[in-house]
UniProtKB/TrEMBL annotation:
Membrane protein topology class: Multi-pass membrane protein
Gene Ontology molecular function terms on file: amino-acid betaine transmembrane transporter activity; antiporter activity; choline transmembrane transporter activity
Record-annotated membrane-spanning stretches: 33-52, 59-80, 86-105
GO biological process: glycine betaine transport; xenobiotic detoxification by transmembrane export across the plasma membrane
InterPro entries: EmrE-like, Small_drug/metabolite_transptr, Small_multidrug_res
Main location: membrane
GO CC annotations on file: plasma membrane
Species of origin: Aquimixticola soesokkakensis
Subcellular location: Cell membrane
Record key words, sorted: Cell membrane, Membrane, Transmembrane, Transmembrane helix, Transport
Family designation: Belongs to the drug/metabolite transporter (DMT) superfamily. Small multidrug resistance (SMR) (TC 2.A.7.1) family.
UniProt protein name: Multidrug transporter EmrE
């Protein structure tokens, strides 16, 4: 697995942990879940920024949001007893199917992220 995908998977896991801690923090009134939330989100966004060095933002965000939705729904079901009806399950399956289509069949998912333009030196900016 290339580094970018490893960073993305860990970022999604960290974001999922942070979102679960958000629920457990009870509106930031419980210190431990609040600290877990802050650390998890910071790690998630740092790793997401590393992923964006080599992958297009649209593809990264599609994978991030789709897997995040599915994981949070599963955690909500298992940990918090939140039930999902059939339309919700079908909708999440469609989201995950869309991620697979993008990843497996689209060239967009495999193209490198655009590189930033080179910096212009001060000498080139000053009028002669």
């Amino acid at each position: 697995m290339p580094k970018a995908y490893l960073f993305l998977v860990i970022a999604i896991a960290a974001e999922t942990i942070g979102t679960t801690a958000l629920t457990a923090s009870q509106q930031f009134t419980r210190p431990l879940p609040t600290v877990i939330l802050i650390v998890s989100y910071a790690l998630a966004f740092y790793l997401l920024s590393l992923t964006l060095r080599t992958m297009p933002v649209g593809i990264v965000y599609a994978i991030w949001s789709g897997l995040g939705i599915a994981l949070i729904a599963a955690i909500g079901y298992v940990v918090f007893g939140q039930k999902l009806d059939l339309p919700a399950v079908i909708g999440m399956a469609m989201i995950l199917g869309g991620i697979l289509v993008i990843h497996l069949f689209s060239d967009t998912g495999h193209s490198p992220a655009p590189q930033a333009a080179p910096a212009v030196s001060q000498d080139a900016q000053s009028p002669q």
